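Instructor's aside before we start: the two examples that follow are unrelated to each other. I chose them only because their records fit on one page, so don't look for a connection. First example below.
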Amino acid sequence: MPQRALVVDDDIEIQLLGQHLLRRRGYDVTTLGGLDELAHRPELLDVDLILLDFGLGEFTELEVLHHLRDLRLSAAVVLLSGCDADTPKPFLASEGIWDCICSAFFLKGSY
């Protein structure tokens, strides 16, 4: 059975990039444009990997991360951020969140 991944980002280009790269690695990938979609389909959280936009919707990043942690998901969560990769780390560490990876993406035309 292939591993499953969920990409949650409001940027369609990031959704497609994540989907493409993960499928090349053998993942079965689902993409969503926002947390509201996820709220209506919580079964989508039954995955091995979640790529999550750092700034998404009306919820703060910490609210989303705390909620995911409270659900005790077995999925690895990777935060996607358009900011400098070091920027979110102190912010997350101050909240006791050490088990995540922050990564900056620079797409054509974004620099």
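Example two begins here.
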Amino acid sequence: MKNSYLLRHTAIAGLALTLSCSAITSFAADVSSAADVIDTRQHGFKKMGGAMKVFRTQLREDTPDANAMSAAADTIALYAKDVSTWFPEGSGAESGLDTDALDYIWKNPTKFDGYSQDLVRTSQQLVEAVASNDKGSIKAAVVAVKDSCSDCHSSFRAD
């Protein structure tokens, strides 16, 4: 009877320890996963911001570098396609990690998706404008991308 009691309590303690370790591991994976998501989106937005700076510099030139602008437009269009995937549940302030993303993103996903789609559309128009090599069209397309970014930031980003 004494051995049965000891065996049963040892088994219960072992089960409790296993469940605790699983919960800790799951929590660590969630934090790691959220950190990876936040790093990915911050990296993507920095790449897009850097590409926008190329336009600011090049459009001030008498003869802008078409290759530099083409590469910048391609970068913006490439990352724009992924923006809507960079904000899964659990990757906001509740993760405890450094992010400027406001909770409103997850409270109003339809509005966020609309802004994401607008960014994809305007970034593709930028690629097309750069291909036309018409400075006026490029400037207008850059403004459209900038406005798309600003509209989204005003609703969903803490500045």
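The chain has five helices and no strands.
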